[in-house]
Amino acid sequence: MPEAVPAQLLAVEGLGKRYPVQGKRGALLHAVDGVSLHIAPGESLGLVGESGCGKSTLVRLLARLIDPTEGRIVFDGEDLARVPASRFARNPQRSAIQMVFQDPTDSLNPRFTARNTIAEPCRLLAGMDDAAAQARVDEVAAQVGLPSALLSRFPHQLSGGQKARVGIARALATRPRLLILDEPTAALDVSVQAVVLQLLDRLRRELSLATLFVSHDLNVVRLLTDRVAVMYLGRIIETGPSRTVFAAPAHPYTQALVSAIPGHGPRIRLDGEVQSPIDPPPQVCRFASRCPAVQDRCRREAPSLHAGTHQAACHFASWPRETIIKAAA
């Protein structure tokens, strides 16, 4: 019998977001281009890539803060891409997808106490009355380790770590099934980051949450996620189990990223210019201008993700890593 395919909580198919370029008639910036990925219930997917590759735009699309140009966002069997972002707040799935933002200070209303901040989505999204909302605030505050004495304080009266816990509690208040973590510790002191990351990992396991973890810290992604997707210039160029991808990266770009982690072999340096995301030629590999192992075929035919558990969008993904290192030397 064929192997059963696990049910997917989130299935993204051919997702794209393009923006018109001011001053260039008809030109389009391809921020997200043909992205397909999936997340199973309770699974943690890491999303990595350098700044400007489209991670933030992809996250905003999945959270339904902006509308896609094309593609599908199927969550629990419903295509959310058909629901305009302006009306998504009234969709029943709104409370099931929540987000922890990068900067806890900027994402908190300075006029709301911590209690009011956490209670707001309970009332607006989960339809709780005041008594139920307050009870939920106390419950979720205890889950994230936020003392009840701090719930009456305003953001400016809280430390960075305390504000991060308020943001996490707010996201958990509606009992979501998918939690999007957009570099949740990037704005925190190093001494606080480890504590918050341990908290997020514990909550994910205890609550059986599916998470999309966006981060520049590859070591954190390697340790805290089940699978990882690598993004470059609006596209997913490699995906697979985190242990496999970090132990044996197949795409030259992923190999360069992993080589930057201390203890992961000689550093692969990338020369050349990043290709413009404005109307990129569809027949050219987007990494060709920087790839140390580029071949003529890469400039004639854009690679696609190969089928399988570990996929890489590279014509020469089977090349040994030593070959790429030698070419980059």
Walkthrough of the structure:
This protein is of the alpha/beta class and 329 residues long. It has two domains: 10-229, Rossmann fold (3-Layer(aba) Sandwich), CATH 3.40.50; 250-328, no CATH class. Helix content is 28%, strand content 20%. The protein contains nine helices and eleven strands. It has helices at residues 55-62, 114-124, 130-143, 160-172, 190-207, 218-224, 242-247, 252-259, 321-328; strands spanning 10-20, 28-39, 44-48, 70-75, 78-79, 97-100, 178-182, 210-214, 227-232, 235-241, 311-312. The chain has a seven-stranded mixed beta sheet with strand order 6-7-8-3-9-10-11, sandwiched between helices. A four-stranded antiparallel beta sheet has the order 2-1-4-5, with helices on one face. Helix 2 runs parallel beside helix 4 (160-172) and helix 3 (130-143) crosses helix 4. It is globular. 43% of the residues are buried.
